[in-house]
Amino acid sequence: MMSDSANRYAVYGMNRDAAFWATLRRMLWSVTAALIVGAAVFTWLGFQGLAAVVVVSLILAVSAGIGERRQPFAAVEEPASDELAMLSPLAREMLERLPDPLMLVNGGDRVLFANGAMRDVVGVGIERKHVSAVMRNPAILEALARTAHTGEPLSVEFTVRVPIERNYQAFTARVSSDPAVVMLLMHDLTAMKRAEQMRVDFIANASHELRTPLAAVTGFIETLKGPARDDAEAREQFLDIMGVEAERMRRLIEDLLSLTRIELNEHVPPRGEVSIEAVIKQAAAALAPLAKADGITISVDCPGPVPAVSGERDELVQVFQNLIHNAIKYGRSNGEVKITLRQQMAPGRRGPEPQVVASVKDDGEGIPAEAIPRLTERFYRVDVKRSRERGGTGLGLAIVKHIVNRHNGRLQIESRVGEGSIFTVLLPAAKKAAEKPSDAGVTELL
Q1: Are the C-beta atoms of 174 and 182 separated by less than 8 Å?
Q2: Which of 377, 437, 446 is nearest to 162 (CA)?
Q3: ∠274-280-283 over CA atoms, to 5°?
Q4: 215-228: pLDDT as tens digits
Q5: Cα separation of 410 and 316, whole Å?
């Protein structure tokens, strides 16, 4: 069966053809009448009078034809769509303010309406476009078509991979049959999915990481209660080890809580403007005593002014504290940690855009090439023994990755065995409030 929209266009085409032939008939009758009158005038006035009458008659005939032609076509112009007439201004305002993305699609699979939350997902200027050009997920398109045909409400789960991975549950329902209008409502499941994934990861990884210090503490307690009950020297030694293991568990729990909070908010764009130069200097000052204990110097090189970035100050401080701490931990004794800060132009959707580049370089042993892709995995360590001896939890670079992704930035890792490592953070400069970030956050391996 043809849709209501197709029927209207078919009727419009037939009316247009009928108007054309009616106009043509009127013009021919006018010309015929003019010729008859011209013959009579020729009999009375000759050629000069005939020529004048023919010219005037033709002008009148064509003018009449054009006037008649305009009138029928005006009457059968394509009717304006009244599919949204059922939405009052109040209803439109309510739909616009819904926090969940919502879209209305007509019987011709054209987008009638999309609220602000939906435009944030699929972009602006989508009204009157075919829904397949806006939503490219086959499951959603199939659900919309089935709901439009049968009226059956459906629910579909799908994932958007870029710029930040998001999980949605889409609901379709036919809200009007004449004219046909189908509603698409999406609910963001990202936080729930990530919480579920984090719970699984915690059970798989955190339980393993906590088992070792707990086993050590439990063993020392049993020893102090038994054979070493009256051994003062052993008691002091065991208590020191228990304190180290307890501190390790505390750091692990703090890093897990920090990573959980960051992952839950990764899809939420940060607000506010932050000076990266001030952030780096704060992080370097906080870690200066730790570097001094190993004879390591920290230098910050910023040859010129750099713009501010959009971000959360505390999170960016945590990024550079983790990177500088790693550089101190894995650098050589009496070495140097070099931090450089500069501005560069990077390609964007609207041409070159300013970008802030901050690099942290150490002079340590370097990282094997095969290990670099896994550095930002949770609990991954290149040197497990050394990491644990220096208080590492295996979560520092995972935290860095998620914070940089949230700030629409990139993390580049460059390292060669025996030549040290360079960790570079690239962040887009702060933009006007009306503009949107343009590049997805990724980790690049050089």
Answers
A1: yes
A2: 437
A3: 115
A4: 888 888 888 888 87
A5: 13
